[in-house]
Amino acid sequence: MPNAVIHSIETPEQLDDILKQYPAVLLLFGAPSCGVCQVLKPQIAAMLAKDFPWMQLAYIDCEAHLELAARYNVFSLPVAETIFYGKSFARFSKVFSLGDLKGAIARPYELLNAE
């Protein structure tokens, strides 16, 4: 099964560009030392490719890019945040399932596709 493209974000400008360019973005904050983050990243990419192909996945390595983590008030990992048209719709941190994430994406994504 193909995976969604994972945009590795390294600067605030890159993040701003992704959020302006795409109407649906899932921000995933993680770190190489976070085992849960490393397991979730490919699973989320596969879910997006299968169920939400228009949604982009942006990954922020919080160990390498502390300023981006601080900008989004990320103090524990992992954190996943859904962004539609530049607005945050749902945010999950530490303990969440792919089902939780999928449910939070489904309704706003349907509205996105209705346009």
Q: Can you describe what's shown?
A:
It is built from four helices and five strands. It is globular, with a radius of gyration of 13 Å. It has helices at 12-21, 35-51, 66-71, 98-114, and strands at residues 6-9, 24-30, 56-61, 79-84, 87-93. The longest helix has 17 residues, at 35-51. Helix content is 43%, strand content 26%.
List the helices and strands and how they pair.
Blueprint: E1 6-9, H1 12-21, E2 24-30, H2 35-51, E3 56-61, H3 66-71, E4 79-84, E5 87-93, H4 98-114
Give a brief rundown of this model.
The protein is α/β, with parallel strands linked by helices and 115 residues long. The chain contains four helices and five strands.
Keywords:
5-stranded mixed sheet; Thioredoxin family protein; 115 residues; Thioredoxin_domain; 26% strand
